[in-house]
Amino acid sequence: MIIDVQFNATKVPWPAIRDGAVAAESAGFGAVWVFDHLAGMALGGTTTLEPFTLLGAIAATTTTIVLGTLVLNVFNRQPSIVAVGGASVAAIGRRLVLVGIGAGAAPDSRWSAEMRAVGQQVETSLPRRHARVEHVIDVCEAMWAPMRPAALATFPLPRPQPQLHVGAASTALAAIAGRRAQGINVAWAHPRRDELLATARTARASAHGSTEGFACTTWARWADGLLDPEHPHRREMAAAGIDRLILIAPPGLPPATLAACTPNS
What we know:
Elements: E1 2-7, H1 14-27, E2 31-34, H2 51-61, E3 66-73, H3 79-93, E4 97-102, H4 113-117, H5 126-144, E5 163-167, H6 171-180, E6 183-187, H7 193-208, E7 215-221, H8 232-239, E8 244-248, H9 255-259
Parallel strand pairs: 1-2, 1-8, 2-3, 3-4, 4-5, 5-6, 6-7, 7-8
Helix pairs in contact: 1-2, 2-3, 3-5, 5-6, 6-7
């Protein structure tokens, strides 16, 4: 199991994220992940940073650590901008980028307030939200394909090609992840996480003949004990076949604490 870290740009300023990312890389964390929000309100912060811009800056100040979004709201950008953004970060960092996408904010959720504040669409139809996820995947696949048509020849071609991961909280979205993406992410605290993982794996095997190469990832709030593979939750995660654990770093976590960790030893 690979252990990653995620920084909250609504509460952590860029200099601290930069120093934390450098420390995480030196400690051996597998990836640095960032959120996608338009404003700090959603996570109780006072501001935020756009995720591709932030990952580009992290890519320029680190050398090897994998970079990821968890998760992009597929209604915050045109699908082509998701593809160009992922490719741009890959070009700057010259490394793997994990483009995590989600179906956007539900209209009755607190996450939708930032969208309403600027007059942005809040899709009320769950099928249309899921269809948008598949459309983003379609566009990314077309724009990142080595043998793409001539009309796409001058769009950025990422090397290595980013991976698409779908954040899922429903079986319908988990099935899309299994059929169409390279990975699924579920909250470890989600009451149906085992069902979501099983649904994704079944869909993957049905569509591709096996689950080989399909990543099952989860996220949890930072706890020092979760760095220990013998921690009860870590044992449960291993038994559930989790490939990556993303720990959300609390605001104020000193870079020295990150640098002193041995997450993937």
